[in-house]
Design a protein that fits this description.
18 strands; globular; 305 residues; alpha+beta
Amino acid sequence: MPKYSVALDQGTTSSRAMVFDHSGHVVAVSQKEHEQIYPKPGWVEHDPKEVWARCQEVIDEAVEKAGAARDDVAALGITNQRETAVVWDRNTGEPVMNAIVWQDTRTDKLVDELSADGGQDRFRSKVGLPLATYFSGPKVRWILDNVDGARAKAEAGDLVFGNMDTWCIWNLTGGVNGGLHITDVTNASRTMLMDLKTLAWDEEIASTIGVPMSMLPEIHASSEVYGEVRTGNLTGVQVAGDLGDQQAATFGQACFDAGDAKNTYGTGNFMLLNTSTEAVQSKAGLLTTVCYKIGDEAAVYALEG
């Protein structure tokens, strides 16, 4: 009978792994920072390969500290910095450039260009988000426009995109040797490319922003078995959870009913309010986002500020 579950928290400034026992008590923790890269004013990057290396290290260290064997661990769940975009070659596993971090503002001109037809709320009724530098979709377009040969490789089907959850899961489950290219509904809802009602990528919006559909990961529930870890101390353990960090905090604080809200203080300060199975469009500048989706159950939505 497995005694533990393991959580990987891939955050903006560090990656942390935590081992929990069946009662929810913390058994072991390991945490390591990664470099913050500022090439120009307003530009913020992370090295995806360094981030992945830190993730492997903290998982292995936390499992060793807990004295846990592989058979002691029921599953691994992942939470991640949202909107931080990685584009990599599916054949080699090599990122085409550093990850563009959620705080980065280099897509400001592109956002203005997209807003010229229909304003800031051009896609909001479908995706719940205003056009802003914050979200992943325009970052992918910037990479394809500015990295030599990237657009042609993407259109040939060789490049894939993901937020940090997708990058970590792909590497955990085998990378170039059959790694799973997936994300969950909460992370997908932060790209500006997912229809909140259908929980599927919107081909028209992706085409308008300039992101080939072949780059996009499969969208799954936040809680289901995706596959197995194929590297490190957790080889053979099921990967069974994926939530963007603020949604994970909302779920972790047990905001399961409509009207329940949480506020967290980290690199940023985020308030999320559970709106149950209704995707409420804000009249006060809040974001409409997916809060979580458990297996085959209906998705639960939130308002975020």
